[in-house]
Design brief:
Layout (H helix, E strand, L loop, with lengths): L11 E4 L2 E11 L3 E8 L2 E8 L14 H14 L7 E5 L4 E5 L6 H6 L5 H15 L3 E3 L6 E4 L2 E4 L4 E3 L6 H10 L1 H10 L6 E3 L4 E2 L5 H11 L5
Antiparallel strand pairs: 1-2, 2-3, 3-4, 4-6, 5-6, 7-10, 8-9, 11-12
GO molecular function: kinase activity
Keywords: Kinase, Transferase
Protein name: Putative Ser/Thr protein kinase
C-alpha cells in the first residue's frame, strides 16, 4: 500500500474484486488495522496487516494473511459464526471480508445489556472449539451481535491452553462493565487487567457472577 495503513480512511484501493473506497476506521488488533470499505453500495471490511511488535503474542515469521485465511477455513469447518472471507492477498498483506453490521460486544457490555442468549452462544462456541483443541481471542471487541446472532469477527485461533480459555481468561472481560467503559474512554488497560503487561484480567470483583455464568451456561458445553 502506498499510504499509511494506520490512517487510511479516504484512500482508494484497487483489488481483484474491484476498487474499494476506505470509509472509516473500525479497529486495530494484534495483526492489523480494519476499515469499513465500499464498492458502490456494497460494504466490506478491509484488513491491512501491520508488523508492529505485540506484547504477550508472537506470529514468528509467518505471513499474517496466510494465517488468517487458514484459521477462517478451520472456523468455518467447525460451524463457528464468522464473517465470510472474500479475498486474501498475502503478497500485499491484506484481506477482504464480509462486514457484519451490529454492535460490538464491548458496547453492550459497557451498557450492562449482556443477555442470557448472548452468553449461551458464547459458551456454545467455546465448547465446540475446546473439543477440537482450539482457543480463540475471547476479548469482547472481537464479537458483533447481528440481530440475535453472535459473530466472532476475528479469525485468530490458537492451540488450546486452559489458562487462555473462556472460563479462565476471556469471560472476565465480559463481566467487567465499568472497566470496559473506562478502558474505552482512557485506553488505560489497568481498568481491565490486573497485570497489563501480561494481559491478565481482573478477577476478584467478579468471581460470584462468573461462577454463576459457568454453572448456568456450561451446560451449553456438554
Amino acid at each position: 500500500m502506498n499510504f499509511d495503513i494506520s490512517s487510511a480512511a479516504g484512500e482508494t484501493v484497487e483489488t481483484p474484486i474491484g476498487k474499494l473506497k476506505i470509509i472509516k476506521f473500525l479497529g486495530k488488533g494484534k495483526s492489523g488495522y480494519s476499515y469499513l470499505a465500499k464498492r458502490g453500495e456494497e460494504s466490506f471490511v478491509l484488513k491491512l496487516m501491520h508488523y508492529e511488535e505485540v506484547s504477550c503474542y508472537s506470529f514468528d515469521d509467518a505471513n499474517k494473511v496466510d494465517l488468517e485465511a487458514e484459521a477462517y477455513r478451520t472456523l468455518i469447518s467447525l460451524g463457528i459464526s464468522v464473517p465470510r472471507l472474500y479475498l486474501s492477498v498475502p503478497e500485499e498483506h491484506y484481506l477482504i471480508k464480509e462486514f457484519i453490521d451490529g454492535p460490538v460486544a464491548t458496547d453492550f457490555i459497557k451498557e450492562e445489556l449482556l443477555s442470557p442468549a448472548i452468553l449461551k452462544q458464547l459458551f456454545e462456541m467455546s465448547s465446540r472449539l475446546e473439543s477440537k483443541g482450539i482457543n480463540i481471542d475471547y476479548f469482547p471487541n472481537n464479537f458483533v451481535l447481528n440481530g440475535d446472532k453472535l459473530y466472532y469477527i476475528d479469525y485468530e485461533i490458537n492451540t488450546y491452553k486452559e489458562d487462555w480459555n473462556l472460563e479462565n481468561w476471556g469471560i472476565w472481560y465480559w463481566a467487567n462493565s465499568r472497566g470496559m467503559k473506562l478502558f474505552g474512554e482512557t485506553g488505560d488497560a489497568s481498568h481491565i487487567n490486573a497485570d497489563p503487561d501480561k494481559g491478565l484480567p481482573h478477577k476478584e470483583p467478579f468471581r460470584t457472577v462468573i461462577e454463576e455464568w459457568i454453572n448456568t451456561y456450561s451446560s451449553a458445553k456438554k
